[in-house]
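Quick log. Single chain, no ligands specified.
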Amino acid sequence: MDLNEVSTFVKVIESGGFTAAAEELDLPKSTISRRIARLEERLGVRLLERTTRKMRLTEAGQAYYDQVSGPIATLHTASAAAEEQQDVPRGLLKLTAPVDLGHAFLADLLVRFTKQYPELHVQVELTGRVVDLIREGFDVALRAGKLEDSSLVARRLGGTGIGIYASKAYLGARGTPKSPEQLRAHAFVMHTGVISNGRVPLVGPNGEEKNIEVEGPLSGNDFTFVLRALEAGGGIGLLPKFSARRACAEGVLVQVLPEWTRQGGGLHIVYPSARYLPAKTKVFRDFILEQLDELGLED
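-> predicted structure:
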């Protein structure tokens, strides 16, 4: 069954004739006639009795119209709604992101985003695992680090440089290291995903590399834990610069040896497909790209 033929038949009846239907559909009258003729041939019945001046439904035509007009109207309504979703950002936007991003800046950004797009509801899942966007029904993801090869669309937002930080209280009590080697004399709060075998890989101002052996009483696999431990005076540690920015602005943390850093991975925005991108995903992507200066990312 050809839905164009069925839809054309309904349009002919509702508009009152072939000429009016051709005008509304912006098609030649001959195309309208051919579609009706093919539909009658498929069904094996006469749907319309027509002369040069008049047109009326046959009994079979009336019965057929009564059955198909409702579904065709529903189909047109559904198509219009789907097209509108491409133009108007509304509904549910499911987003997944690393826990550290949620604590560092994501909540602030999303409050502003939903104020700008009040017809959108954003549902966030903060997790350390790589979410299968398609299988789990997510619209978009923010991902840090190296991306796995996939069919997803990924756009780099910037680099997540990692610096060395400590609280003012800790440095006041233990002193501020003046060289990477002096880190050995300090308590280190270690992120187990960044520091392996008790060694901190650092890159200097001229690209020189050093692996400094450190130790300390605390370690964990979450940067937010490291951040809170450093704020509490637990020692010196590595943090993404975007995670430490607020604490530094508030005067709680200080960056130590700022010319020495640990190279971090990039931050990307990822979504299933660039083709027929829903309006809700497009406006979120564009909003994040507009906020890059605020995120404290590196080029």
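The chain is about 45% helix and 25% strand.
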